[in-house]
């Protein structure tokens, strides 16, 4: 029997032994007194955010934290994936050291996936590890990147190449923050929500199809259910494979094609979620060509991705360019391209595919 | 019953659950076929070393590794604590990424504490963690820094501020490598050996006193015993407190004074072990002033430290300067200076001390 916390609509436990924690989902959680109870004490809380999110939420969160921690600081980083690098990470370290923050400091990530990844990695490394809390403010980070403990920065030679598996103390998915998101970013987040259906839960895919307009419109009840079910599915996968030994790869359904789109166009041209949206259709198409699912599954996913406001086909890059970028994707070990595919709706498999079939998919699913 | 491995004189297990590993000690272990057996397979081994150690041992180690791994690379970093920074760490990442090293790469640290700390931290972060092996080539790293999983780089505002707890797969203490060490570095390593007596093992302190000349002369039998017993004591402490929750602090006996010496003179003026040597005497002196040990313990330690070729008193900095540097030491939480002291020989305690007594120690134990 799970205790009810005022203002918290859903709680998802992430079972990872002594690194276990909860994802709390609800409206206005960022400043809910009840939701923040029970966290360990700290000498300082340092909020890490960016220039876009800070004006919207930093003051409100810091005021709330001042009731809980003796000292509250705020570090504002430049916005965007292009700043997910050592220079920005070092801005966090500079601040922590200049302010003499000790090992009893807690970092609080306030923002989307880039802020969460960088804050988590800073927490993993600062004095060999201080605790951190996630307050994801985008749909994509609420349903995906803030859960599971993958933290990282980019290197000029590759995305997310320098990082750590490091779990937060708690994740606060305050769905009120989603209302300040541009529509394009809501759609991008929905790509990751849609992903969970084909790989793990056919009934959830049915539910998403029935509620996609409510999700696009950010209706609270629908969003809370979508975030909850997404986190539950991710939690089950992460609990079974914290360090990406194998199973966790299924969360990358659509991502091998998606990464090729991002890399081929130049990162930032399409949002990650947009590339994943088209990537889902392409991965379903390849699954169908391998005989793993009937062709109508591709039609169905294409329709849903389109209704979510996402591109349903990849951009017009050459097949060779796609293949090149898929080969250097870091999930590729020793040159092989392994794809996450679906073997019926609700079951993912990871396997290589013949290049001829991949080329057929690229011909069928790009503009 | 521990299996005997050819060429291995001693084996020290480090019990850390699924992160457990062994320290192997012996002559010529670096290229012992038997000692390297049983490590997990890898697509590449990347040796990380520096400009001083590379000409002595890199070729020999790489040739040995080529018999075990399909591909062997070597990264040579600039030498010295002043290069224990992000720029050098990034040289490792640049190399790994330029060579398309995947998650099945193993890093091999060949060198002293700086190389071990940096290689371990690079391994902790590269693609969120690849395995690594320690081949410490200094006495200090064999008896201290290569055991226990503390890895880090320095930040302009503090030493070892950015790092991780990350355990190696195995540690190879090849005592043959110590013969290329300058005498000053042998003495520096002996400071850490001596440390283990007062904090944990009165009989080991007796043994060190009886064999200090053999140790200074690097006689194999004595060195093997000293490395083994040092690693055993460190292993017991680390197993009980991997992440420095409390007990592990006793390993810093002499280090609070020592760090103040290093910081006050400018890092690199005295070797770390030299500062610890004088720091041991000062910490014993403070313990005596607090009534925890009789005064003759100070005389005894001072004599031993001197016979090891180490300074027995701190440099002539002002007491205020010592106190300033001790206060900013990162082991000081929220402003308190806590000292590791001895409560009789063989038992360490961690506690604050009245400033007046600390000033008496500084007056008595500095030049």
UniProtKB/TrEMBL annotation, chains A, B:
GO terms for biological process: amino acid biosynthetic process; aromatic amino acid family biosynthetic process; chorismate biosynthetic process. It catalyses: 7-phospho-2-dehydro-3-deoxy-D-arabino-heptonate = 3-dehydroquinate + phosphate. It is an enzyme of class 4 (lyase). Its cofactor is NAD(+); Co(2+); Zn(2+). The keyword 4Fe-4S does not apply. It comes from the Bacteria. One of its GO terms (cellular component) is cytoplasm. Its EC number is 4.2.3.4. It is found in: Cytoplasm. This is 3-dehydroquinate synthase. It comes from Ideonella dechloratans. The gene is aroB.
